[in-house]
Amino acid sequence: MRKIALAFIALIGGFLATAAGERYLSEYAPEWFWRMAYGLVVAGGVSYALFNDPCYGYLKEFREHVALSTIIVATSVGIMAATIWVFGIIGFPSSKDYMDFRVRGWIKSLKMPWTVTPTRVDPGVYFGFYIDHADRLGVGASRSKNREDDDHVTFAGALDFVGWRRLIFDKLSRAQRDKLFRELAIEADKQKITYNIDEKRPCVSVTKSVKLNGTLTASLFMEKLDDVHTELHLLAWTIDKFLSEVAVELIPTEPVAKFPRLWGTFDGCLDNEGQNGVTNIFPLLSITNNGPPTLVDIGTATIKSGNKTFSGLGSIIYEEGTQHVFQTGVEKISRSEMIVEKLGQKEIQTGGRITGWLMYELPGISISELRANGYEISLFLRDASGNEFPVSSPSANQMGGKPAYIPGFNNPVLKHAGEPPVPRPTPPSPTPDKGASPP
């Protein structure tokens, strides 16, 4: 029995050594070499057990130990057959086909904010999925059948200039387009983003890949997926900020009936910290409708502060409102003053304006860090026809502080000019924002 125990220990040790070798030396040997190595480790362990006592003794005197000999032979044959199946056919634990199977499982198991949709059948790929995000910036994941790169999963995210983006882009002069591309290159270099731009299409894309081998784990897979989405989001931020700035000069030349225009402006922002330690900000948003009467939805927001980015944020509403404590008094922002509550199912008429508060939670950043670095906010407005209109805050060092006076809007914090709020009490449970942000 001692020799069988030693064989078992050697089997486990050989398997772990082979797995480690494949993980760190996979670039220096083909895949079949590692499949064979796993098989030889198991075959060696089985052979060692068979040719040493007590197994060898039972097999040698098989006429006296018919049952035991039969069990030993059957078990050995079964182990070798399973070894061929697992390591040779399935390719466990890290062959391309096995990792392909695992990746499909990881993709299909994704939950909100991701939505997974298989792409159309393509004879050039083993699989293809479109992984859509709640902020409407999706990422494609596929594995090519091209033998040069069939051992990789490719992530590709693309931002096409469609809708309002295409409308404004087509009106840009050559000099304005060059300026947009320069600003895009500067931001990409700052964030260390590698991207491609197709000016004819026009489209901006980000591509990354992961290798189908033992180094690929679920966490690494999700990290690459998030990297592509985040980088695409940062590029979209730069593009939308530029286009929204030039839109003011370009769009007014269009007839009102042809282009229902929505304009949003951030008129300041409160920032505060609750007793739970989570940093909160309260942007004051005004929406003006220069087109036909329309319902308005507010899309998810992206907030940047220093080197931190918070994306896909939906506005929060508290049933009982929120209290803000200043040195000279306490003020309450009621639920009815939140802009998503004001919009509801009410159209904004031509020439009309609605002003109200938004609220976002920013876990992972302290209130002092937020105020030291400043912050920028961007989101989009959507009219009843599905047209989208970007809204961006001023530069980081201008955002924050006391919201401005707006005629016709009762702003309770104006009387506390120059006073930052102190940490407010923990609020009651939040209520969904009634669908003002896309699902």
How would you characterize this protein structure?
By secondary structure, this protein is of the alpha+beta class. It folds into 3 domains: 2-92, no CATH class; 97-238, Yope Regulator, Chain: A; 257-431, Sandwich (Immunoglobulin-like). It has helices at 2-25, 31-50, 55-60, 66-90, 96-108, 164-171, 174-190, 218-250, 339-343, 367-373, and strands at 114-118, 125-133, 139-144, 152-160, 196-198, 203-211, 262-273, 279-289, 296-298, 301-305, 308-313, 317-318, 322-326, 329-333, 353-357, 360-362, 376-383, 388-392, 430-431. The protein starts with a helix and ends in an 8-residue tail after the last strand.
CATH topology of the largest domain: Immunoglobulin-like
- The share of residues in helices is 25-40%
Spans of at least 5 consecutive residues whose pLDDT stays below 50 are: 253-260, 434-439
Question: Which structural class do you get from the secondary structure elements?
Answer: alpha+beta
Mean pLDDT, all residues: 78
User: Sheet bearing the most strands, described?
Assistant: 6 strands, antiparallel
In CATH, what is the class of the largest domain?
Mainly Beta
Number of domains: 3
Gyration radius over CA = 31 Å
